[in-house]
Amino acid sequence: MDVNELSARAQAFLFSEGGTLTLKKLGSLLGVKEPELKVALTALSARIEGTGLALIQTETEVSLAVGKETSAAVQKAYERELAGEIGDAGLEVLAIVLYRGPSTRAQIDYIRGVNTSWTIRNLLTRGLLERTGNPEDGREYLYRPTVELLAHLGVRDSGELPNREEITAELKAFESRPADAPSDTHL
Fold it and tell me: N or C: which end of the chain has fewer CB within 10 A?
């Protein structure tokens, strides 16, 4: 595989990850050793220069990020976006994660009945949710409430939430019913 193809694949993996990858993990995904990976990352960094993206690299990790030439514009757009309310969709996602516990995006989507990618991204950006690896499936993430969210709600943990047992039982019943079963209630 030539350097251009390898750097394109590295960019694709970094993009699809949406965050930081260890060099070891990226090398494993690409099926290359460290020297080849370094050459590919150098080529990728040169290729994306001036595109609004930058390759950020430490001794052990690498990530795609917003480039310095576009960071002010992106920051301004996020500030406008974050100045508004989180809306009903945001409140629903927070309720699911608070009452259900750590949840994958697929689980949240199933309960809400719609795609929640944008809403989750917004809540992550606001510091209300955190994303962690899923120990049961390395291909997906778990979303959980942040300490800041719990503090804002005035609770020490989700066990102190109002009507916790009742709502948790309703969520479990909803998730355990067959997908084509009629629903009497909306969550």
Answer: N
What's the rounded mean pLDDT across residues 131-154? 89
161 and 99 assigned to the same domain: yes
Measured CA to CA, the distance from residue 111 to residue 8 in angstroms comes to 36
Instruction: Name the domain count of the chain.
Output: 2
Enumerate the β-bridge partners of residue 62: 21, 57
Instruction: Look up the domain containing 96 and give its range.
Output: 85-176
Which residue type does 126 have? Answer: R
The two tokens of residue 175 are: 């998730």
157 exposed, middle or buried (CB, 10 Å; 0-12, 13-18, 19+)?
exposed
Q: Is the Cβ–Cβ distance between 98 and 161 less than 8 Å?
A: yes
**Separation of alpha carbons 122 and 103, rounded Å:** 16
Of 130, 72, 85, 125, the C-alpha closest to 103 is 130
Same domain for 15 and 98?
A: no
Asked if residue 98 belongs to a domain, the reply is yes
Instruction: For residue 20, tell me if it sits in a domain.
Output: yes
| Bridge partners, residue 63, by sequence | 56
